[in-house]
Amino acid sequence: MSFQVFTDQFEQFIGTNFWTMIIAWINILIMYLILRKFLFKPVKKMIDARQKEVDDMYANAAEATKAADEMKADYEQKLAKATEESEQIVKDAVRRAQLREEEMIRDAEGQASRILARAEEQIELEKNQAINDIKNEVSGLAVDLASAIISRDVDAAEHEQFIDDFISRIGDEN
User: Fold this and answer.
1) Which residues contact 12 (CB under 8 A, 6 or more apart)?
2) Which of 45, 56, 152, 166 has the most CB atoms in a 10 Å sphere around its CB?
3) CA-to-CA distance for 103 and 101, rounded, in angstroms?
């Protein structure tokens, strides 16, 4: 069987020329190689570049998230430290205020006791002066009474009358 016979039978069975089909297959192969060279490689290169860009974006997003988490942790730590420091400052201020209050109370008590002591001293001095004034006045009156009694000779009724007048004069002076 010759090749010509085979091709004729093939054409009858398939309905196309054998050589046409071989040329079509060669054209497809050439087209595939051309497309692969000029279309598939650039497209694959572009897809790979785009995939790398997307991967880089995800990596950057992950790094940004990690950095944000670190900043958040740092912020929370600083916030906790600031809160602790503010609590310590408030405690110190309260303690200083209590100490100042106690000191002021001690000063006020000391001042009050000094004022009371001075008042008691003043009262004692005035009391002593009043007693001395009364003693002086009584002694002056006694001297006056004695000189009046000595200057005249009085009987008991006159003496009693004289003492009553003296007492009433003392009452009028006060």
Assistant:
1) none
2) 166
3) 5
Task: Return the ∠ at Cα 159 (arms to 154 and 165), rounded to 5°.
Answer: 125
Give the count of domains, the chain.
Answer: 1
User: Measured on CA atoms in the order 102, 105, 110, 111, is the torsion positive or negative?
Assistant: positive
Domain span including residue 49: 3-173
What's this model's pTM, rounded to 2 decimal places?
A: 0.39
Structure tokens at 104: 């002021």
Q: Cα-flanking dihedrals φ and ψ of residue 29, to 5°?
A: -65, -45
Mean pLDDT of 110-137: 89
User: What Cα–Cα distance (Å) separates residue 154 from each residue in 27, 60, 140, 150, 157?
Assistant: 180, 134, 21, 9, 8
